Amino acid sequence: MRLKEVARHLLPAPLYNGAEKVARKISWQLRYRGNTYYCPCCAQRSGSFKKFRSKSIDLERLKPQNSAVRCPICHSLPRHRIIAHYLSKNTLPQLTAGPFIFFAPEQALINYFKKADIHYQSADLFRKDVDLHISITDMPFEGGTISAIMCNHVLEHVDDYKKALREIARVLQPGGLFLFTVPMKSDLEKTIEDPTVTDPKERIKRFGRFDHLRLFGLDLLAVLRASGFSVDIIKGDELPAEIMPVTGPVDYDINWLFVCTKNS
Ligand SMILES: [Zn+2]
């Protein structure tokens, strides 16, 4: 019997689960040890990143040269590291002033915010492990009361993303911050969407994933401005190579970070 199975039999479940997690982390640290790469989400160095795997995307869109992009310690992807790097180099008072609402929070960024001592209320319409069960298109907040909102790879799942942007602009204070990333192609002028496409295979083919409702194009900028935002875009190729801020793992992961400020 392997040591792992012996431990599973002997230890109470919570203790076993904790020990297994620590053992797995040590094993990954040994396997990926080195100094070439740095993950600003978990502040750990590694010699290489892990391969990205998913059954729910269009594999033809996977960029083979950029498929090993996951941090072996915290599983961050390029978009998470771009955000953590940007936030670590720029003071954004809206994030600490509060209230800060973080939709569909990802573990790598949860780790980062904890380390940076930045507090937020987590939100999601479907997940159980969040503070607020709310829709991004209809939030239970008075207008102009929220300091910051973040959501990554959320707007491509929302039925009416323009309504979501209007709602975000409504609840934010003047000067409030909206940070987000979406699947997007920089050579696509107009967002591709078609609400009549409901077949998962067809969605994978058209929008890249079975539950994506659209693939964003450059017209998103005009929609943001029309919704009442000033927009800055942080592009990965301006950031240090050691965080591997590449386009990937999929061709629509151009990983532009939109830093939007609500107009006064
Ligand atoms: Zn990491």
SSE layout:
Layout (H helix, E strand, L loop, with lengths): L2 H8 L2 H19 L5 E3 L4 E3 L3 E2 L16 E3 L7 H12 L3 H5 L2 E4 L3 H10 L4 E3 L22 E7 L8 H11 E10 L10 E2 L6 H8 L6 E2 L4 H7 L2 E6 L22 E6 L2
Parallel strand pairs: 5-6, 5-7, 7-8
Antiparallel strand pairs: 1-2, 3-4, 8-12, 9-10, 11-12
The protein binds zinc ion.
Question: Can you offer a commentary on this structure?
Answer:
There is one protein chain. The protein is an alpha/beta fold and 264 residues long. It has two domains: 1-31, no CATH class; 78-262, 3-Layer(aba) Sandwich (Rossmann fold), CATH 3.40.50.150. The protein has eight helices and twelve strands. The protein has helices at residues 3-10, 13-31, 78-89, 93-97, 107-116, 161-171, 200-207, 220-226, and strands at 37-39, 44-46, 50-51, 68-70, 100-103, 121-123, 146-152, 172-181, 192-193, 214-215, 229-234, 257-262. Helix 3 packs parallel to helix 5 (107-116). The model has no long low-confidence stretch (mean pLDDT 91).
